[in-house]
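The data layer described in this paper is built around a simple, fixed record for each protein. We quote a single record here, exactly as it is kept in our systems:
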Amino acid sequence: MATPDDLAGSLQALPRGGELAALSDKASGAPAAIRAVATRWRGTAGKTVGLMADLNTTATNVDDAWQGESADAFRDYIRTYGKAGDGFHDALANCANLLDAVASKLEEASSKINGICGNLLTRVETHRRNNPDRKESDLSGDFAPWVDTAISSAGAAIEPANTALNQAVTALERYKKDELAYFAHIKAPGSDDSIPTSGWERAPDYRPRGGSDDPASSSGGYGAEGGNTSGGHGGTSSGGGGGGGGAPAPKQEVVEWIKEALTILRDNGVAVNPNDQATIDKIWTIIFHESGGNPQAINNWDSNAAAGIPSKGLMQTIDPTFQAHKQPGYGDIWNPVHNIMAGVRYTISRYDSLDGHPGLASISGGGGYKPY
């Protein structure tokens, strides 16, 4: 079997053979090395999920134990790490998929170009044997159109790999600027109101979480509001079943918001049932992962924020999306019921159903939550 060097040497002897050899070398790439990088990135993405879950459990213990303005600030501050962790995980996982696509396209291109070159060289050698008395200059003239055709075919064969590579580079640059930069946008500890001050008060009926029998210790979400949360709405976690998707049970207040929103939507022709627990759980899962149940939540660190349209409210909608999908007559993005209605209408409009929401679909398939 001819080695790559043998192949290149044989091609170099032909008119324009160097161009064909260069295409062959370009397609050879290093798919195994590319896949190895993709595997490492996926591993890092997976570890991020575990680290963020551990951070969430620890932060929930603190949130349960303390109350007051500084406690609220601490809770909101820790949520920024959860959002950053989600973005970091999704960016690495998606980049790994892009690298795998590049590796596959390179292998396909290399196989096709090797076949093109092999067929050309076989034809050249056959022509030489059949014309032993023909001058080399004349033979080169015979070979030239064959090489031209081979170069054209090889160029077409490598184009899908070029496209995959360009797509990967563009996406990597975007992820580097946006999702992979989430952590860089988090304020340094102590630079805001999340340090212990007189605003911290110990919750009187606090019980520590995190034991092996405590379901909260396995929650994969961020900014949990179970137990005696320091959130501004007061009360304990109640109602609405277990939440689903790694989310703790929602507060009764949130359940009432969801039911009110679903009732209004149903009365306006949307096919939803305000008394269906599964529907309530699905919406709560989205709310939990998007805002932690805080109707005043605002995302000030991603690309939407940089564009002047930060995500707002319970379901983290940007203003243009909210305006396009709000229920007529319910136009306050900060109102939890209005925000839920717009988020549900948008989800159904874009994904055909709540089940089509990327976060719910991913959780249903055994993966982590994905924002919409």
